[in-house]
Amino acid sequence: MFSYATVEAALATNLKVDTNGRPAFAARLRHLRNLGIPRATPGTGRRLSYSIDDVQQMLIALLLESIDCSPRASADIARSVTAGGRPFPEIIAVLPHGKAVSASVERLLMLLRAHQVLAVMNLSRAFANLDEALQKALVKQTGR
């Protein structure tokens, strides 16, 4: 489980948010939380701890926002991709009208032939970068 400070630092590093952009970035995270991303919510008087699934869901929404998806569409897509306890997909194909489809490499080729694909997100690489950023943030937070 990760603290908010660790999560914010790791996501900011992963998305290359500089020091001047951190207040706006924190506001984006608050807005996503208001939209239900991550799924976890704190109890009364409790500090929220984030699981790796929560942090990955937040990253998916933030990556979608970075390609100009609205926060609501980003949250909806992140929720749909991660719903039902399924493992997170390796690749997401972003389609028009706020739709996204999880895909294998083979399915992605079929989608590219049959649909207007606006963007392809390589979640495997994004999650590997996130893991590295989380480890660095933990070391910085704990001093170990």
Summed up, what is this model?
The protein has 144 residues and is mostly helical.
Sequence-ordered SSE layout with sheet pairings:
Blueprint: H1 4-14, H2 22-34, H3 52-66, H4 71-81, E1 91-95, E2 99-103, H5 105-114, E3 119-122, H6 123-142
Antiparallel strand pairs: 1-2, 1-3
Helix pairs in contact: 1-6, 3-4
The fraction of residues in strands falls at: 5-15%
From the N-terminal CA to the C-terminal CA, the straight-line distance is 16 Å
Order of helices and strands: HHHHEEHEH
| Share of helix, binned | 55-70%
Q: Which structural category do the helix and sheet elements fall into?
A: mainly alpha
Cα shape: globular
Mean pLDDT figure: 85
Strand tally, please? Answer: 3
Number of helices: 6
**Sheet with the most strands, sense and barrel status:** 3 strands, antiparallel
Main-sheet strand order equals 2-1-3
Supply the number of structural domains: 1
Q: Which segments are poorly predicted (pLDDT under 50) over 5 or more consecutive residues?
A: none
State the oligomer: single chain
Whole-angstrom Rg: 15 Å
